[in-house]
Amino acid sequence: MKLIFLDCDGTINCKTTKDRINDKKGGGGLLGIDNKMLKRVKKICKKTGAKIVLSSCWRFWDENKEYLKKKGLEWIGETPDLNGKIRGEEIKEYLMNCDEFVEKYVILDDDSDMLEGQPLFQTSWKDGLTEKITNKVIKYLNGK
Asked: Residues of 15-25 as b/e, b for ≥16 C-beta within 10 angstroms?
C-alpha cells in the first residue's frame, strides 16, 4: 500500500484560495479548498494507487471533515494526536500501528516538522500543491 499523509492549509489551499467553509452571507468563514489543488491530490492517487491519511489539524473538527467529504476527498485514516508532539512523530506512530504493509509513503505539508528521513514534499502557503510537486510525488511513489 502507498500512502499520502495530507496536510490541508498550505497544501490544498493557499493564500489566493477564494473558497470558504460556511460562508453563509459572503462574509468569509474559514479558508476552504482550492479545486485545482484538490484535483492534483486526486491525480496522485489515481496515477499511483496511493491512499490518503489526514495529518492536518483539520482532522480535529467534524465540520472540516464533512466539508472535505463534500468536496470529494476520501481518506482511509487520520494520524493520532500525540499531545503536542511534532507531525513527524504522529506519522511515525500511524505507520507503526498500520494494519497493512506500507510499501511507500509521502508527506504533503507546508510545515517542516518531520523526522529525519521522512519523505516530505514541502508545499508553501504562497502556492499550495503545485503541478511540479505533484509530478515529483508521482515519480517517487511509482519508484522512478
From this structure: eebebbbeeee
